[in-house]
Design a protein that fits this description.
Length: about 625
C-alpha cells in the first residue's frame, strides 16, 4: 500500500514538474508574441494549474490504451510534432519581433530548450490530434446515393456561377504580378518571349490578346481569359468534389466543396488573376486527381489509359512552372522504389517519359515560337544572394578587406542596404544585371567555395536568411507573406496583389473597370487590407503555413496509420513544396496549388487500408 502511494506521489511530482516547464515554455512564447513580461504575470498561476490538470487527464487517457506498443507510438509521434511546432513558433516570433534568432550554440540551444518546454504544453493537443487520426483510420465511408454525373455537373455550374460576381468586381481581370512584362512581350511578338516566365503562359496571354484584337477591344480579350480560367478551374474543382464524394459518401461534401472552391475569397480572387500560378494550380490539381485514380481506383486497361493521360497532362503542367519538373523527377524515383514486381518497370518508363516529355515539350515550344532569349539563371540563387546580402547588411563595416571584396564581387555593397529579409527580388534584380554574368554564371565551383567560407564565419546570418525567406511556409503566425511589399486597400499589395500593371510600351492600356464596385471594396478589404487578421479561428485558413502544415500532417498521418500507398502518393505535393523553399519569396500564389489540392489528399483518409496493399480493388463508398 505504501509502495502504491509512493508511486502516486512520484507521478504527481513529475506532473507538477512538467506543468512548470510547460508554463515556462508558454510564457516564453507570450514574451515573444508581445505580452510584456508574461513570465512575471500572475496569469502564469492559472496557466500552470490548467496545464497540470491537462497533463493528468492526458496521462489517464494514454493509460486507457491497452496496447503498450501503441501507447508508446502515440506518445512519440505527438511529442515529435509538438516539439517541431513549438520550435517553429519560438523561431518565428523571434524573427518577426527581433529580425533574427538567438545566435551561437547557446542561443540555438535555448531555442531547442524553450521549444521542448512549449512542446510539453501543447503535447495534450497533439495527442488528441493523433487520437483523431487513429479514429479516422477506422472510419468506414458511407454509400453514396447520387449519380456521379449529377454531382459533377451541379458542382461545376455552381462554382462557375459563384465566380462570376468576383470576375465582374475585377473586370476584365486582375492584371498584377509579372503581367506587365508578359503583356509587353505578347504585344511585341513571339521573338520577344522571355523564359523568365513560362513561355506557354505568355503564349496564353498572347492568344487572348489576339482574341481581343479580333473583337475590337483587347480589354474584352482579357475578360475572355478570365472566363477561360474560371471555366477550367470550375471543371477541375468539380472533379475534386466528386472524388471526395466518392470516397466519403457524405452528402454535405458537395456543399462544402462549392463553398471552399467557389466562395472562399482567396480561391475566388486568385482565379481571376493573370499570374501563371492559376493555370498551373488547375493542372496540378488535375494531375493529383489522375494520380489518385491511377493509385487507388484503376486496374487493367483503365490503368493504361490513365498512364497516357498522366503523361500528356503532366507534360503540359510542367510548362507552367519551371520548378515542377524537379518535383516530378524525384517523386518518380520514390514511386519506382515503392512499386512492386512488374509494375516497377512500367512506372519507371512512365516517369522517364514524363520528365523527358516535359523537357521536350519545352524545347518544342521555344523552337516553334522562335525565341532565342535564355532564362534568367539568377533565379536559382535566391537563397545564397539573400545570405550574402544579410552578411553585408549586418556586418559590412566590420569585414576585413579581403572578405569585403569577395562579398562585393557577388553582391555589390551598394545593394546591401536594400536587403529585405522576406523577399530576394530587390537585391536579386541588381545582381542579375551587375555581378551575375561575370562572377556567378559558369563559376559554380568558386561560388560554392566562397559561399561555404563566408558561411563558416557567419553561420547565424546564413540560417536566419534562409528562415526569413521561408518563414511564411512554416510559421503559423507569420505576416511577412502578406506584408513583404506593403499592404492596404490603396496599395493593393497585401495577401493577393490586385494592382493594375497593364501598361504597354507604345500601345494601348488595358483599363480596370469594375462592374461590381461594392463587392470589389469588400474583397479588397480582405485580400489587400488583410482584414482577416481580426477574425478569430477563421483567419488560420488565410495563412500559407496552414496548408504546408496540413500537408505535412497528412503525410505523417498516412505513415502513422501505416498506409504506404497514400504516403507515397502524398510525396508529389510534398516534394513540390520543398522546391519552393529555394524560391525568392513566400506568396499566396505559390501555395495556391496546395490550397486546391489539400482537400483531395485529406479525402484519402477515407480510403480503407485495403487500398494501401497491392490490391487493385479499393473499398470505398460506391455511387449508383
Amino acid at each position: 500500500m505504501r509502495l502504491i502511494e509512493r508511486l502516486k506521489g512520484q507521478k504527481t511530482i513529475l506532473q507538477v514538474l512538467l506543468a512548470l516547464l510547460g508554463t515556462y515554455g508558454g510564457c516564453c512564447l507570450g514574451d515573444l508574441a508581445g505580452l510584456d513580461k508574461a513570465s512575471f504575470s500572475v496569469m502564469g498561476i492559472p496557466l500552470g494549474a490548467a496545464l497540470f490538470l491537462l497533463i493528468r487527464w492526458t496521462e489517464r487517457q494514454l493509460g486507457n490504451i491497452s496496447n503498450q506498443r501503441q501507447r508508446r507510438r502515440r506518445i512519440r509521434w505527438a511529442a515529435v510534432f509538438g516539439f517541431l511546432f513549438s520550435v517553429s513558433m519560438i523561431m518565428g516570433y523571434q524573427l518577426q519581433t527581433y529580425g533574427m534568432t538567438e545566435s551561437g550554440f547557446r542561443g540555438k540551444g535555448l531555442i531547442l530548450f524553450r521549444g521542448a518546454c512549449l512542446g510539453i504544453a501543447v503535447f495534450p493537443f497533439w495527442n488528441l490530434l493523433f487520437q483523431g487520426i487513429e479514429k479516422a483510420g477506422t472510419w468506414k465511408p458511407e454509400a453514396g446515393c447520387w449519380r456521379s454525373g449529377k454531382v459533377y455537373g451541379i458542382c461545376a455550374l455552381a462554382i462557375f456561377l459563384c465566380l462570376i460576381p468576383v470576375w465582374l468586381a475585377y473586370y476584365p481581370i486582375v492584371m498584377s504580378y509579372d503581367f506587365h512584362r508578359q503583356i509587353n512581350e505578347a504585344y511585341k511578338g513571339f521573338v520577344w518571349f522571355w523564359p523568365y516566365q513560362p513561355l506557354a503562359h505568355t503564349w496564353v496571354i498572347w492568344l487572348f490578346l489576339q482574341i481581343g484584337n479580333l473583337m475590337g477591344n483587347i480589354q474584352t480579350g482579357m475578360a475572355c481569359m478570365a472566363l477561360f480560367q474560371m471555366l477550367l478551374y470550375s471543371l477541375a474543382a468539380a472533379w475534386a468534389i466528386l472524388f471526395l464524394y466518392r470516397v466519403t459518401g457524405k452528402k454535405w461534401v458537395p456543399a462544402a466543396g462549392i463553398l471552399f472552391f467557389g466562395v472562399f475569397p482567396l480561391n475566388s480572387v486568385m482565379v481571376v488573376c493573370t499570374t501563371k500560378d492559376v493555370l498551373f494550380s488547375i493542372l496540378f490539381l488535375v494531375f493529383v486527381l489522375l494520380l489518385a485514380e491511377r493509385f487507388f481506383f484503376s486496374v487493367g486497361r483503365k490503368q493504361w489509359i490513365l498512364d497516357v493521360l498522366l503523361l500528356l497532362e503532366g507534360c503540359v503542367m510542367i510548362q507552367f512552372r519551371n520548378n515542377c519538373i524537379y518535383a516530378v523527377a524525384v517523386f518518380g524515383v520514390f514511386w519506382v522504389i515503392f512499386s512492386a514486381g512488374r509494375e516497377r518497370l512500367r512506372v519507371l518508363l512512365l516517369c522517364i517519359l514524363l520528365v523527358a516529355g516535359g523537357k521536350g515539350m519545352e524545347a518544342g515550344i521555344k523552337a516553334a515560337l522562335g525565341t532565342e532569349l535564355e532564362p534568367a539563371r539568377v533565379e536559382m540563387f535566391s537563397v545564397p544572394i539573400q545570405q550574402f546580402a544579410r552578411v553585408g547588411f549586418y556586418h559590412g563595416e566590420e569585414l576585413d578587406r579581403e572578405t569585403w571584396e569577395m562579398l562585393n564581387s557577388y553582391v555589390l555593397a551598394s545593394d546591401w542596404k536594400n536587403y529585405n529579409p522576406p523577399i530576394s527580388d530587390t537585391v536579386k534584380a541588381s545582381v542579375g544585371v551587375t555581378t551575375f554574368h561575370s562572377n556567378w554564371e559558369g563559376n559554380l565551383g568558386q561560388v560554392l567555395k566562397d559561399w561555404l567560407q563566408l558561411g563558416m564565419q557567419y553561420p547565424n546570418e546564413y540560417i536566419d536568411a534562409f528562415l526569413e525567406l521561408t518563414r511564411g511556409y512554416w510559421f503559423l503566425d507569420d505576416r511577412s507573406y502578406a506584408e513583404c511589399l506593403g499592404y492596404g486597400a490603396e496599395e493593393r499589395m497585401g495577401t493577393i496583389y490586385t494592382y493594375n500593371s497593364s501598361a504597354i510600351e507604345n500601345g494601348p492600356e488595358i483599363l480596370h473597370e469594375s462592374k461590381f464596385p461594392w463587392l470589389e471594396e469588400q474583397l479588397e478589404n480582405i485580400v489587400s487590407a488583410n482584414a482577416y487578421y481580426n477574425w478569430p479561428l477563421i483567419s488560420v485558413f488565410f495563412k500559407c503555413a496552414f496548408y504546408v502544415w496540413g500537408l505535412c500532417l497528412l503525410f505523417a498521418a498516412f505513415l502513422y496509420l501505416k498506409r504506404r500507398k497514400q504516403a507515397v502518393f502524398c510525396l508529389f505535393p510534398l516534394l513540390y513544396t520543398c522546391t519552393m523553399l529555394l524560391g525568392p519569396v513566400v506568396q499566396l500564389r505559390y501555395i495556391f496549388p496546395l490550397m486546391v489540392t489539400l482537400p483531395v489528399l485529406a479525402g484519402l483518409l477515407a480510403v480503407l487500408p485495403s487500398c494501401s496493399s497491392d490490391s487493385s480493388q479499393p473499398q470505398t463508398a460506391g455511387i449508383s
